[in-house]
Design a protein that fits this description.
By secondary structure, the protein is an alpha/beta fold. Helix content is about 50%, strand content about 5%. Helix 9 links the parallel strand 2 and strand 3. The longest helix has 22 residues. The protein starts with 7 loop residues before the first helix and ends in an 8-residue tail after the last helix. Pathway: Carbohydrate metabolism; pentose and glucuronate interconversion. Keywords: Isomerase. It catalyses: D-glucuronate = D-fructuronate.
Amino acid sequence: MTLFPAEATQREIARELYAHARDLPLISPHGHVDPALLADDEPFPDPARLFVVPDHYVTRMLASQGIPPARLGVPSVDGSEVETDGRAIWRLLAANWHLFRGTPSRLWTEKVFAEVFSIDKPFGTATADEIYDELSARLAEPEFRPRALFTRFNIEVLATTESPIDDLSAHAKLAADGWGGPGGRVITTFRPDNLVDMEWAGWAQRVAALGELTGQDVGTYPGFLAALRARRELFIAAGATSSDHGHPTAATADLAEGEAALLYRKGLGGAADAADAEVFRAHMLVEFARMSLEDGLVMQLHPGSVRNHNTALYARHGRDVGGDIPSATEYVQALRPLLDRYGDDPRLRIVLYTLDETAFTRELAPLAGGYAALYLGAPWWFLDSPEGLRRFRETVTETAGFYNTAGFVDDTRAFCSIPARHDVARRIDAGFLARLVAEDRLPLDEAAETIADLAYHLPKKVFRLDGPAA
């Protein structure tokens, strides 16, 4: 796999530039790997439960062709039966592998087969059992346990994502073991969505749990804020350098404390409507920005996903199984209250992602090019693909440059795909920079410096990861 330009001159330049980034350590400041994976360091389960069951990129594609997630082993929340035979799940994937032609899922999977597990044969019905057996044999070896792979992948920082009411026990176990991999570390990220979204079922109960954890009176709005600050302090002690906010929209609101307190009481009393919930979420983004000025956490904001759009899928299998859909997202006016208050303060860092590519040139690049606090995050989720990464560079660089972006983040739950995703991004950036060099728009030495910055130095700087390994 090259992913380099087809034109010969640019391809050679891209190869040279890629060599400057290829072996740099991996910085993964935004992701969703379960930290228990590394804390427990147990062998991975069978290949189906590593590559298929937890991967909603895979299960949603198969579901789109009429293959129910239950047949792929996706756990149910309604008590319905699901397939438990890993080999049967694997054979089903193999029989439908043609559905993934041209997709990043196929690219990542085949790259993992080849580069992590040394399996180069084509995947399909004829080879399914053979590859399943080879993978199973390797997964039983000590060299393929999570901690060994962490070291082999050359991961310097891996950030996981937890709710403020998570007990962080996996991170505590890693700390007690004194483990972060040679020269590496595993840190947490503060993700408070389920405590600021009144429309999320169980919100009041989670707020009560927050109060119990912190000893704060969360029956009052000031007590709620104090409880969140207390948990942020604990997350920072566990290594966190950023918070993560996945709101339905990018709306922000700068309310007076009395207005916010009234909304909060309405929510606790069950009287808040959808408009109230949106305003409260919007205001809490400004509150979190204020907290970030106090404690230094980098804010990440990734709006624009209509969660659980497939209601039947949600009813049967719950959240995060492929039922979410991107929507158009407005940023210029939505972010203005927050940016009016803090956007020119260089102490604040906001990394902004989108699922709406139409906003890159029109809104996001000009915003990032105009406010000291704002950086553009990498293409994620539906846009985390070779073409999506290329389009991102083409649409934002002329206005925002390279250094108002935050480098690459892999945003994955699939631990074994982390090096594949980073390598794809490095190859795409090499190709983009090669064109600038070939067109005499950038000297070769500056392009070489830039690709190393995009791959490694920028994410370390923007996410404040320059401290010593824990």
